[in-house]
Design a protein that fits this description.
The chain is globular. A three-stranded antiparallel sheet has the order 1-3-2. Helices cover 48% and strands 29% of the residues. It has helices spanning 13-20, 46-72; strands at residues 2-9, 29-33, 36-43. The protein has a single domain, classed as TATA-Binding Protein. Helix 1 (13-20) crosses helix 2. By secondary structure, it is α+β, with helices and mostly antiparallel strands. Strand 2 (29-33) and strand 3 form a beta hairpin. The chain is built from two helices and three strands; from the N terminus they run βαββα.
Length: 73
């Protein structure tokens, strides 16, 4: 079993977490502690881990870009 934990810190941690929540697989747990967004998950294969990380990072990037665009308007 391969386990991973990713943390992101910022004042919009909760908003970013809510933005990607629908994309989370059942194996991914997410929580917000203050200004820290925490994802934890485990997989059987390294390829699955990398694909999951890639998807999650891309979804967070899109959420961040959307938030920046909304703030600029």
């Amino acid at each position: 079993m391969i386990r991973a934990k990713m943390t992101f810190e910022g004042m919009h941690a909760e908003t970013m977490g809510r933005a990607v929540l629908p994309d989370n697989l059942p194996e991914i747990t997410m929580r917000v502690e203050g200004q820290i967004l925490i994802f934890e998950f485990c997989t059987q294969k390294i390829g699955t881990m990398l694909a999951t990380l890639d998807d999650l990072l891309m979804n967070l990037k899109v959420a961040e870009e959307t938030m920046i665009c909304a703030e600029d308007k």
